[in-house]
Specification:
Oligomer: heterodimer
Strand content of chain B: 5-15%
Order of helices and strands of chain B: HHHEHEHHHHEHEHHHHEHEHHEHEH
Distance between the termini of chain A: 19 Å
Largest sheet of chain B: 4 strands, parallel
CATH architecture of one domain in chain A: 3-Layer(aba) Sandwich
Helix content of chain B: 40-55%
Largest sheet of chain A: 4 strands, parallel
Radius of gyration of chain A: 20 Å
CATH class of one domain in chain A: Alpha Beta
Largest interface: A-B, 48 and 44 residues
Distance between the termini of chain B: 47 Å
Structural class of chain B: alpha/beta
Helix content of chain A: 40-55%
Radius of gyration of chain B: 21 Å
Number of helices of chain A: 16
Strand order of the largest sheet of chain A: 2-1-3-4
Strand content of chain A: 5-15%
Shape of chain A: globular
Strand order of the largest sheet of chain B: 2-1-3-4
Number of domains of chain B: 1
Number of strands of chain A: 8
Chain lengths: 394, 409
């Protein structure tokens, strides 16, 4: 797909994105409240069902916000966590400026501390969500399900109290249905690059996904339906002649605006076709199960969020590794780029295990890129990627 | 041996007149013999969770974060960090975790363990990464149990979750040691643990006095050993009792070990352990006296209730451990302890590479300021230790300024 075609495809989405801050401002003036969440465990169905506006605060790539966040966290903290505080402090991001509350799933350390700062310094209501981390695919810990279900119920009550509108089962069913349909559409898009003839590239799909963090969910679904319609029966302009190396990107969150590594890979001739990142396709695999209108929606939500592909914060490493190997195989990748944001120790400590398992099973080599949001290391990373692409070929 | 190691060994000073501390340091240093003689299974445990279940299962608890790290630092085993990072751990991790993991990965661990058990919860994610790697490398079984997030509204299901976690942990321990944990064996382990807790509470109360009779380094080591009860709870309790008795005698005789004059600066340390053990002597040399340190306070913040259903009591106690709480809640629960020690100043201590404490410093210092209004000093221990020298000079100046103020006042 050439640049003009790319622009046309996302034209309507981009307009909606540009209009979104204004629409949020109007909605807030009418009494609606905006609740932000940071990680994909933040259960947006709950926020929607309580008549609140969900926004995933997955912004990255901005050094200034990191510096501002370092005044709270330490100098060598995860850049995303720093910028998640810095963005609020600097008041330069419309979405952060419009926050009425935040929902924080208790995942990695910095995320837990974020809640402390939002509550104590920014005086925003914080809705914490406890998340067991020792559960496993064998489901040997049934109490993890019970605990998480209770946490979700409490969140439901708290969010309902915050908006003044109870998140009834009926509204939860509606929200689940909407979010599941969005997941279906996104999954359809992410599967396209499995084919060399894909009419859309992974990077564009990531952009579409990220737009969904901010847009009204119903509007977003319509946009996705439009995009899907436009893409059906189309094929790549490069087609089978595309000689670029097929890459999978795994690792830290790639935030909205965090373009450095993606630009470098594109400019050096690499082609990302698959991912295992939490702002990409990592969690799309599992939808919220629904067993008819009479079923308890909270059970479905518990099932989906607890037993999805575990993020590295979860102890069940083997399941995560299996998922990565399967994705690499399904997308016939030539190499993996492991993107690690500085001081993101949890991801970093898994790198070797992932590298080893991928090489052992599929003979796929891996390149580790450790960086932050500054541009200082751009040349160095470019050289590394160039050498890696030479190695993996296409 | 390089300069740093030589200087650690040469410059660390113990209070030789405090005879009862010999028993404590012997317990610290001869654990290899003690473990061999016992013939019991050794279960490694992460620092901040109770050792009672392991003893109730007839095993020996072993805290490698204490017994692997301090000797490795004194012996200068810097290469252990490389072993850990070669195995895949991030070099950004707290260097003590890297040293501990490196010891097991390279097979240079001081004590051979039969199994690993670690608790995860609100504190450092690094525990799960490090312990998983240690167990994989030494090809020993590992069990994680979890303290979930909770607040006042979630108490009921959080405690239910904890009880189930403990039950599974007990089952696992039974498989490792071959001994079942019974109501009686757990109750007996809790009773013994409470005696040790009570000892530490009493030792801390002694530090509330105007005259400080317990030197800083000795206090630090004594407190750390509560983590695994030194593989022999009965003997540790006896040693603690002897120490308390001697300190009380010192009180009667007005025998002071350090500059505990009225002009000395009463310092409370909050946060993480300080792996460079020289600092404790240095604080005293600069004119400070240590009146409390809370790195292991979660293990003795109060005794475990002995009457009634013992697993529930243990779960409720774990639920109340300050280390299980978010920062603001944790500080609110520990601030009364800090106040009771009547400090003139507070040092917030963290280890380079850690997350929870360094990232919470801003909030911690605000709460201390609001509640105590005393000067605060941030001490981050880095490795190799030479690079923290400027921080120690700043610490000296900090204490000196406070002393000057006290002298003028």
């Amino acid at each position: 797909m050439n640049n003009k075609a790319k622009d046309n495809l996302l034209h309507s989405l981009n307009i909606k994105l540009a209009e979104r801050p204004q629409k949020i401002a109007v909605a807030r003036e009418s009494g609606n409240k905006l609740v932000g969440y940071f990680c994909p465990y933040g259960t947006e169905e709950m926020i929607l069902a309580a008549n609140l506006i969900p926004i995933r605060l997955a912004f990255g790539g901005d050094s200034e916000s990191i510096s501002a966040g370092e005044a709270f966290l330490k100098g060598h903290s995860c850049p995303y966590a720093c910028s998640s505080i810095g963005n609020k402090k600097l008041s330069i991001n419309d979405y952060y400026n419009s926050l009425d509350g935040v929902c924080i799933a208790q995942t990695y350390d910095s995320m837990k501390i974020l809640g402390d700062y939002y509550q104590n310094y920014f005086k925003l209501p914080v809705f914490p969500l406890g998340l067991p981390r020792t559960h496993n695919a064998l489901r040997s810990k049934s109490h993890a399900f019970d605990y998480f279900k209770n946490e979700l119920k409490l969140l439901q009550t708290r969010l309902g109290g915050f908006s003044g509108k109870t998140a009834t089962d009926f509204k939860m069913h509606q929200a689940i249905n909407l979010c599941n349909r969005i997941r279906d559409k996104l999954l359809f898009l992410y599967k396209l690059p499995q084919d060399r003839n894909t009419p859309i590239e992974w990077r564009q799909i990531l952009k579409i996904t990220q737009a969904g963090f901010l847009l009204d969910r119903a509007d977003y679904l319509k946009e996705l339906e439009g995009i899907e319609k436009a893409l059906r029966n189309k094929s790549s302009d490069k087609g089978l002649d595309d000689k670029r190396s097929r890459l999978m990107i795994v690792g830290s969150l790639i935030g909205i605006g965090d373009e450095k590594i993606l630009d470098i890979i594109e400019q050096t001739g690499g082609n990302i076709v698959a991912d295992c990142v939490c702002t990409g396709s990592m969690f799309l695999r599992k939808k919220v199960p629904t067993f008819g209108i009479l079923s308890a929606p909270i059970d479905g939500l518990t099932e989906r969020y607890l037993y999805n592909v575990p993020c590295p914060f979860m102890i069940d490493k083997s399941r995560r590794l299996s998922r990565i190997v399967k994705t690499a195989k399904d997308y016939r990748v030539h190499g993996m780029v492991y993107y690690n944001l500085r001081s993101n120790e949890t991801w970093r400590s898994e790198f070797k295990a992932i590298k080893d398992v991928l090489y052992r099973n599929l003979s796929i080599p891996t390149l580790l890129i450790e960086t932050d949001y500054s541009s200082e290391d751009k040349e160095e990373i470019t050289e590394k990627v160039k050498s890696f692409l030479k190695l993996v070929g296409g | 041996m390089n300069n740093t190691e030589q200087s650690i060994q040469n410059t660390v000073r113990f209070d030789t007149k405090l005879e009862s501390f010999n028993d404590i340091i012997t317990l610290f240093s001869d654990n290899l013999n003690r473990i061999k003689e016992s013939g019991k299974k050794v279960i490694a445990k992460s620092p901040l969770f109770p050792a009672e279940p392991i003893y109730a299962a007839g095993g020996l608890a072993y805290d490698p974060y204490l017994y692997e790290v301090i000797p490795a630092l004194i012996k200068g085993k810097r290469h252990l960090i490389g072993k850990a990072t070669d195995a895949g751990l991030s070099s950004d991790l707290n260097f003590c975790n890297l040293i501990m993991a490196g010891a097991f990965i390279s097979g240079e661990n001081e004590i051979s363990v039969d199994a690993h058990s670690a608790a995860c919860g609100f504190w450092d994610d690094q525990i799960s990464n490090t312990w998983q790697m240690m167990a994989e490398a030494s090809q020993k079984p590992i069990h994680f149990w979890e303290v979930p997030r909770f607040d006042n509204n979630t108490e009921k299901w959080a405690i239910n979750f904890l009880i189930k976690e403990l039950e599974q942990y007990f089952e696992w321990l039974t498989n490792q040691t071959g001994n079942s944990i019974t109501e009686n064996s757990l109750r007996e382990a809790v009773r013994m643990g409470n005696l040790i807790r009570q000892d530490i509470i009493e030792l801390n109360q002694l530090l509330q006095n105007q005259e400080i009779l317990f030197p800083a380094l000795e206090y630090y080591i004594t407190q750390l050993m509560i983590s695994d009860f030194a593989q022999n709870p009965e003997r540790l309790h006896v040693a603690y009792q002897k120490l308390i008795q001697e300190l009380k005698e010192r009180q009667l005789n007005h025998s002071k070990p350090a500059d505990s004059s009225e002009k000395a600066i009463r310092i409370f340390l909050t946060g993480e352990e300080i792996p460079d053990i020289r600092i404790w002597n240095q604080i005293e040399d600069y004119g400070g006296i240590i009146v409390g340190f809370d790195s292991r306070m979660s293990l003795y913040y109060k005794p475990i209730k002995e009457d009634g259903p013992i697993i529930e009591n243990l779960a409720c106690w774990i639920y109340g451990m300050p280390s299980s709480m978010p920062t603001a809640q944790r500080m609110n629960s520990t601030i009364s302890f800090i106040k009771s020690q009547k400090p003139d100043a507070v040092i917030i201590s963290s280890i380079a590479g850690s997350t929870i404490f360094p990232e919470s410093n801003t909030l911690i210092s605000q709460i201390i300021q609001d509640e105590l209004g005393v000067p605060i000093f941030y001490l981050e221990t880095k490795f190799p230790f030479e690079i923290v020298k400027p921080t120690y000079q700043e610490l000296e100046a900090f204490i000196q300024n406070l002393k000057d103020g006290k002298n003028r006042g």
